[in-house]
Protein: Putative transcriptional regulator
Amino acid sequence: MLSPIAAAAGHLLISEPFMMDPNFKRSVIILTEYSEEGAMGFILNHQSEYLLGDVLPDVSYSEMPVYEGGPVAKNTLHFIHCAPDKIEGGIEIADGLYWGGDFEQVKYLVSNYQLSTEEIKFFAGYSGWTPKQLDEEIKEDSWIVTNKFDVETLFTLDEQNLWRQVVISLGQRYAHIANFPENPALN
Structure:
């Protein structure tokens, strides 16, 4: 089994290097919920074609990217942040990392240039698993689970390298995986 750490809210899921599902290929997911009722999280490194102004036309600062949080409920907007001093009501899911909060406050702060992409990340849709589904996928080595990451890394705009950076940060046991080609037939 690739993952010695159990899944939990606030942990990262890192897709195995040859995952064929286009929704999760080379994905890094932050889990926001994990219980016997199922799991939920957001893909951190799949930027959509939309900017925040495309989905919220009433927000004047609209250049922030919107990420594909997952294949479920793509018509919903979610966010994580590391600015609890600015955004009230968020749920702390990891040390210094929050999910959700006062959305009207967020719109005001974004419109007035008081939030940056280093503090907040928006997602269209989410990734979800039914009870026991994620546990089975982890047993099948589809995912590596980690609770060791820097919150700042999650807000990087270099989503192309996020998967690789997170894999390397896991240490020698996993570092070689970071260099696997996306398509082994091209090796």
